[in-house]
């Protein structure tokens, strides 16, 4: 038996008293006033905005085309760049003035890359020529390639060639990995360009440098020997037993990427002034296993990747100049950027990746956490730092789940004798279990353990836009939204959002909508508030914002903001258009939504697809026979989460259903279904999403500014920023459990109304080891994890550093958890609670000495009663996507390194090489 000394007992009493003192100090902080008086100072010096992600990081790279061949340290390779200054080189006709000599490219970030967006801007280029309304010459092609070789990547390791470009364009060939071979011995000539080996005329731009000598694997597909085909070889090489590797044809290529999953940019448009910009989505091994970026290699190092930019001028490799042609059929480039001569024109920039989450061995002991996805990027950053610091001896797992699931997880600890099946820590913006009190929840009572709340992050919801359209090019100015504009966007009043509107086929939709605008850019209220944005029509018209399907307080707060607009509330409840007068009332409401009375409190917590109309084309003969019916969820499908919403927006991924395709595969596996639109081409892109500021910042989407219903200009509109979040935080009020909430109706002058405070909710009935692990996570999150930056362990963009008052509250919880995990036997603390709505709590050590009690729970250390009386209602199970159910199963099972990711994404790839031959 171990005997404790009197000194040990004294130290224990001091430790316990210190914890109580922290609680007392914390209570005093709450009494003194709301937080927000002191804020941690974000790193400065590069113009990078911590909330929006606008600007460049310290690892930004700017490079001219003349020095564009960079090594894996992003230093120019002198030998490789030497030819670019030669006016007599064999490919000089491709790059000499006025082609690429003045081209300069800037990439906003090159280190600590994750699944995110990079801002790529350029200047000194030639204006894109669009004689038929599509890019024909003078544009950039971007792709991601794997590798760490000092000489750069191989075209065989690049994700490109998914036939992303629609077949209706004059030049779909530039989106493939295939092109024409020249006859043996052919030499490029601008005066007499050689014909192709197969007899095609010179406009097809055969490449005299193909096939490359010694290329392994060969640049010739045995099934197509008169053309070159640059095969794709996945990271790690080909499995000798695997079929379709190397991937030469469309079916084999679709194992690795397709036009629905690729991040390639086949045509990035240059403006009249020689400038341009795109947001380029970087993919990790989770989204693109064929690239493997961020994955550990056998050496233990993280596999890194490259951003490759191939500028295209007016020449194809055989010397044919498309710009000077008068025949529209000959005005477009037709060769692949992966062919040897085009590839020699590339700019290559090395990207250093953060390790993917699954770098710890399977079976490693895991501390499981769950919670709101708005905390995901911060938690994942903290995970990486903590897991690495522990050398994987102990790791933290995290799964983004709906609020009801967080409650269900913590509820497993309500009875410590029977607990052990769920996570004991959940990240939340609301008291655990309080979602049961919202409208639509079922009745009953929530049985919960004692819970401590520690503030760990301040962030916000937002609306992210990716607009790259026509002559306006990439739009980088914020879009202005009012409550009424958002209300209309969420309730299917624009004609392009209705499944039974297809004017080309004679379907005009319901009578009430026939005078409504096609889309938001044709709404007079929108154009008045956003005079510089393009007015879009036709097939590439914007649709409603990408939305998640779950129920949450985050969604509820958006509806609460909408209800702050008197015009929005009245229109939602009535939906009656009026002639003249208020522009908000020129659009008729959808009766299926008007019946929901969404303008009247309490606000709902989801985004319904309420329109009941469908497009029914009759019966498809099959086999098998099936009804050709398109409804709201086909036109406006949900996304799984905020990350997916922002990712789809940055790539322009339009998931809506197009025309009926007898060859498309239906959800039940049978042939015949509505074809997906896929990724919109640059120059015809208008996609937006509701997401959180961390995801919007990570992908570089342009944030919206929120305006009042009476606004006609952006003068009084407010967007997410460090200043606006700080102001809103200062206006926050504690709810019944002591958690700070921002009221969208009163966020303070200049405050952003959708600001959120994220708390780590910890069930205190867990075993000591769990409490210690949770304390370590919170201590780091509220300490070193509040340093802004993009490296693992930093506070990512999109989060406001915690004010010192909230940091102190979090550290008081840490002290309490550590005291609970290691109590002194002689002064073992006991915890008592008083049930009720936001009831009081009393923390009293044995003997009653140094007791601290408060009628109002202190923010950060409030304890939820075991039997929470939440309007006498229970938590209603909520719908979640398949990926999140999988993650939750991993959490519950205790498997190591639970991560959210998409499975290998593959789909059929169409080849367009011969479609437009004369």
Task: Outline the secondary-structure elements.
Elements: H1 6-32, E1 61-64, H2 78-81, H3 92-95, E2 104-107, E3 116-123, E4 139-146, E5 158-159, E6 178-180, E7 227-229, H4 250-253, E8 265-269, E9 276-282, E10 305-312, H5 340-343, E11 347-351, E12 366-371, H6 376-389, E13 395-400, H7 403-411, E14 425-428, E15 446-447, E16 451-469, E17 473-474, E18 479-481, H8 483-489, E19 501-502, E20 507-508, H9 524-529, H10 553-562, H11 566-574, H12 591-594, E21 615-620, E22 626-630, H13 632-635, H14 642-651, E23 653-665, E24 671-679, E25 684-692, H15 693-699, E26 702-706, H16 722-731, E27 733-734, E28 740-741, E29 755-763, H17 768-781, H18 804-821, E30 829-833, E31 841-845, E32 852-854, E33 867-868, H19 882-893
Parallel strand pairs: 12-13, 12-14, 18-26
Antiparallel strand pairs: 1-2, 2-3, 3-9, 4-5, 4-8, 4-10, 6-7, 10-11, 14-29, 15-33, 16-25, 16-26, 16-29, 19-20, 21-22, 23-24, 27-28, 30-31, 31-32
Overall description:
The model is unreliable at 1-46, 826-859 and 866-918 (pLDDT under 50). This protein folds into three domains: 6-43 and 363-459 and 738-893, Periplasmic binding protein-like II (D-Maltodextrin-Binding Protein, domain 2); 68-356, no CATH class; 479-718, no CATH class. Strands 12, 13, 14, 16, 18, 25, 26 and 29 form an eight-stranded mixed beta sheet that branches. β23 and β24 (671-679) form a beta hairpin. With 918 residues, the protein is of the alpha+beta class. α1 (6-32) runs antiparallel to α18. It contains 19 helices and 33 strands. The relative contact order is 0.16.
């Amino acid at each position: 038996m171990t005997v404790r000394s009197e000194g040990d007992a004294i130290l224990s009493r001091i430790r316990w008293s210190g914890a109580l003192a922290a609680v007392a100090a914390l209570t005093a902080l709450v009494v003194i006033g709301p937080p927000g008086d002191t804020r941690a100072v974000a790193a400065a010096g590069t113009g990078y905005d911590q909330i929006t992600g606008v600007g460049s990081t310290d690892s930004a790279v700017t490079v001219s085309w003349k020095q564009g061949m960079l090594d894996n340290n992003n230093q120019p390779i002198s030998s490789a760049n030497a030819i670019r200054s030669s006016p007599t080189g064999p490919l000089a006709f491709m790059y000499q003035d006025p082609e690429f000599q003045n081209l300069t490219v800037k990439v906003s970030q090159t280190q600590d890359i994750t699944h995110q967006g990079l801002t790529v801007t350029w200047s000194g280029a030639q204006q894109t020529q669009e004689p038929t309304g599509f890019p024909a010459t003078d544009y950039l092609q971007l792709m991601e390639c794997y590798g760490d070789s000092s000489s750069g990547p191989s075209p065989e390791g690049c994700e490109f060639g998914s036939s992303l470009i629609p077949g209706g364009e004059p030049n779909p060939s530039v989106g493939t990995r295939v092109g024409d071979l020249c006859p043996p011995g052919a030499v490029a000539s601008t005066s007499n360009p050689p014909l192709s080996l197969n007899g095609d005329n010179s406009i097809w731009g055969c490449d005299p440098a193909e096939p490359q000598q010694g290329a392994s694997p060969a640049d010739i597909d045995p099934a197509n020997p008169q053309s070159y085909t640059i095969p794709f070889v996945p990271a790690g090489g080909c499995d000798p037993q695997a079929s379709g590797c190397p991937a030469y044809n469309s079916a084999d290529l679709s194992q690795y990427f397709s036009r629905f999953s690729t991040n390639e940019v086949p045509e990035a448009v240059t403006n009249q002034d020689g400038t341009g910009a795109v947001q380029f989505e970087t993919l990790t091994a989770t989204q693109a296993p064929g690239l493997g970026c961020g994955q550990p290699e056998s050496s233990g190092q993280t596999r890194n990747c490259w951003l490759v930019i191939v500028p295209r001028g007016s020449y194809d490799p055989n010397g044919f100049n498309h710009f000077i042609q008068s025949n529209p059929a000959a005005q477009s480039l037709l060769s692949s950027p992966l062919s040897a001569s085009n590839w020699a024109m590339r700019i290559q920039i090395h990207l250093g990746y953060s390790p993917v989450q699954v770098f710890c061995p399977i079976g490693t002991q895991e501390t499981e956490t769950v919670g709101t996805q708005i905390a995901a990027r911060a938690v994942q950053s903290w995970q990486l730092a903590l897991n690495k610091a522990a050398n994987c001896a102990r790791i933290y797992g995290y799964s983004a789940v709906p609020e009801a699931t967080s409650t269900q997880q913590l509820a497993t600890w309500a009875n410590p004798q029977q607990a052990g099946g769920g996570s004991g820590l959940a990240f939340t913006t609301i008291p655990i279990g309080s979602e049961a009190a919202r409208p639509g929840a079922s009745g009953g009572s929530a049985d919960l353990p004692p819970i401590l709340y520690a503030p760990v992050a301040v962030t916000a919801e937002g609306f992210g836009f990716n607009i790259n359209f026509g002559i306006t090019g990439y739009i980088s100015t914020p879009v202005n939204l009012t409550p009424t504009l958002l209300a209309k966007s969420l309730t299917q009043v624009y004609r392009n959002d209705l499944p039974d509107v297809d004017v080309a086929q004679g379907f005009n939709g319901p009578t009430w909508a026939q005078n409504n605008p096609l889309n938001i850019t044709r709404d007079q209220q929108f154009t008045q508030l956003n005079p510089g944005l393009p007015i879009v029509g036709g097939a590439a018209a914007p649709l409603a914002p990408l939305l998640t399907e779950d129920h949450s307080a985050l969604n509820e707060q958006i509806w609460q903001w909408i209800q702050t607009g008197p015009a929005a509330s009245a229109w939602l409840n009535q939906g009656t258009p009026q002639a003249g007068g208020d522009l908000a009332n020129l659009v008729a409401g959808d009766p299926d939504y008007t019946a929901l009375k969404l303008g009247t409190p309490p606000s709902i917590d989801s985004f319904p697809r309420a329109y009941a109309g469908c497009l029914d084309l009759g019966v498809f003969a099959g086999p098998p026979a099936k009804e050709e019916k398109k409804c709201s969820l086909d036109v406006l499908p949900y996304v799984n989460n905020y990350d997916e919403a922002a990712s789809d927006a940055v790539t322009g991924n339009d998931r809506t259903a197009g025309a009926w395709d007898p060859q498309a595969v239906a959800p039940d596996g049978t042939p015949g279904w509505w074809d997906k639109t896929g990724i919109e081409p640059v120059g015809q892109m208008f996609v937006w999403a509701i997401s959180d500021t961390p995801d919007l910042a990570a992908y570089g989407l342009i944030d919206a500014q929120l305006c009042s219903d009476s606004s006609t200009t952006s003068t009084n509109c407010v967007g997410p920023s460090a200043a606006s979040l700080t102001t809103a935080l200062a206006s926050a009020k504690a709810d019944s459990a002591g958690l700070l909430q921002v009221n969208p109706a009163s966020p303070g002058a200049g405050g952003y109304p959708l600001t959120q405070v994220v708390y780590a909710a910890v069930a205190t009935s867990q075993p000591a080891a769990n409490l210690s692990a949770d304390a370590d996570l919170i201590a780091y999150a509220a300490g070193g994890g509040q340093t802004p930056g993009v490296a693992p362990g930093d506070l990512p963009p999109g989060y406001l550093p915690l004010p010192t008052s909230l940091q102190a509250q979090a550290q008081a919880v840490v002290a309490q958890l550590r005291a609970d995990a290691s109590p002194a036997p002689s002064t073992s603390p006991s915890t008592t609670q008083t049930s009720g709505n936001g009831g009081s709590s009393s923390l009293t050590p044995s003997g009653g000495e140094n007791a601290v009690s408060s009628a109002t729970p202190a923010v950060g250390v409030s304890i939820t009663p075991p039997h929470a009386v939440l309007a006498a209602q229970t938590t209603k199970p909520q719908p979640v996507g398949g990926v999140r159910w999988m993650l939750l199963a991993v959490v519950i099972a205790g498997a190591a390194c639970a991560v959210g990711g998409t499975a290998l994404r593959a789909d059929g790839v169409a080849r367009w090489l011969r479609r437009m031959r004369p």
